[in-house]
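Bug: token stream looks shifted between consecutive jobs. Job 1:
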Amino acid sequence: MPLKPRILSVAPMIDWTDRHCRRFHRALTQHTWLYTEMITTGALIHGDRARFLRFNPEEHLVAFQLGGSDPADLARCAAWVEQAGYDEVNLNCGCPSERVQKGAFGACLMAEPDLVAQCVDAMRQSCGIDVTVKHRIGLDYDESPQLMFDFIGKVSEAGCKTFIVHARNAVLKGLSPKENREIPPLRYALVQRLKADFPDLQIILNGGIKTIEDIHQHLEWADGCMIGREAYTNPWLLTRFDSVSEGGAISEVGSRAEVLQSLRSYVESELAQGESLRNLTRSWLGIYHGQPGGRLFRQVLSDATRLKTNRWSVVEEAIACTADKQFA
């Protein structure tokens, strides 16, 4: 079965890419892959599984990212992910946080390619959707490529054909997750060499990609690009993604205010079910990034007193601070 193309995607980001964020992103781009934040196998097995697996039908194509290192647990969870209707299940082998390391998964798994291969094999045996792996290019301050090449070689033999590569090392001790996204140097050339050595694998580049120009440059050799924080801080960038992935004109999504107005029925339905306006709109704060009234828009949608009212009128008040005020 041919691999689904993943030309552009939005990275899984803990505490950021929840289903409300993904629903917002889908209003900006129709053909970009969306990823859940990482959910652990323990959360699915012992927690509120239905809540963790819930997503909006509009989100397709959408992938679920799992955190774990026990093949049996991962297989069990992968089957649930498929049953829930996701298009892909992704194994996290890139998160460097100490909390994740204590659970013996995330980036530290790069040092255990045999175990990851067992995990991938078990997941593939239990589900029929794509099983992919997201990882770093190395661990700590060792810049030798051998660890990554050995990791890719072993895991690909287990049947994984898509690797999402964050082009930085993961420093397991001494750096915070935020510092791990900034301090280890980006080494795109190493990922390009990886693609040359494994031409039959789908290699998706992640890390430091912020502009459409960056994307075009990397797509000269990579199979796809995954965009992280820029998609959250400057979400309007996503309106240009379909022109890249589909090779056509920029999507006609309307103005920023029209995009937000298109989400009104979704927001009001969620509010009626007890969701908070803060949770529904926190991913919207950057939509007027660099635009007149953008700062005031963010202030209104961040005001605790206003947000407590849980009314759509707060969104209209925020839009009224911008050049789109005629749409409020």
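Job 2, same session, no restart:
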Amino acid sequence: MSSYTSAEVPVRGGTLHTGIWGPNDPQAPAILAIHGVTASHRTWGMVAAALPDVRVIAPDLRGRGRSNTLPGPYGMPVHADDLAAVLEALTLPSAVVVGHSMGAFAALVLANRHPHLVESLVLVDGGLPLDVPSGLSDEQVIQAVLGPAAERLEQVFESPADYEQFWAPHPAFAGHWNDLLRDYLAYDLQPHGSGFRAATSTQALLEDTAELHRGTALLQALDQLAHPVQLLRAPRGLLDEEPGLYSPDYIASWQAKLPDLRISDVPGTNHYTIVMDDPGAAAVAGVLAGEAVSRRLPAGEAPAS
């Protein structure tokens, strides 16, 4: 099991809570891992455990987890600047950057705004503008895409066990209930009166979701993409439905626009299990291990097989 520590990184309005797995060695390969729109850094526990020789640095984004009291405005440029502050505070000259879901959007904007900090990009079921019907309000987009994941933010739960029961029927987690998920759900709660609420700020969700389908910072980052990048797609979506967050036809249309974008499916996964259960977590960790090693090799030298 990878060692785990945490750090508080100064950013506008307070500190960004950051989890760090792996060796306490400044020479070890580093990966900056960015979670999704209503998630926390605990999303990455299983991936990090599969990378014991790599420093996996994963903040709770502004408005989420133990960073949820940080003030707005939110949005991808703000998250990108917060992420840059994390790397600089930990004196990391650069890192391989991986983002899941909304984290992939933040990763792209980070690479566009702070290119010297990014070695390469791995986008996990995110990063391309959401394929939603035109004319939807931001609230309608949230409901259409996130469903129960967004609805829980307005609810008060009597206990952590009550919160687990809320998630238990969720189709994405059927057959995937594991220790990581239990840890993730326990961490997601904060006291509220005599009960508990999920830690994500509703305002952060609203502002950030608007950018996932019409954000200018994202479109600029895609248009000016200059880093090696690959996208790992889950064939099934947030409710374990086909064809997933991105249909094969939609992916193909973006492949035509970005011919250097490498795209591959991770079989047997949905939007959540691609990082929160195997075989997804193992597959993502394998890609990241290859990136972390190859970026450290002298030019022209191939990784050992």
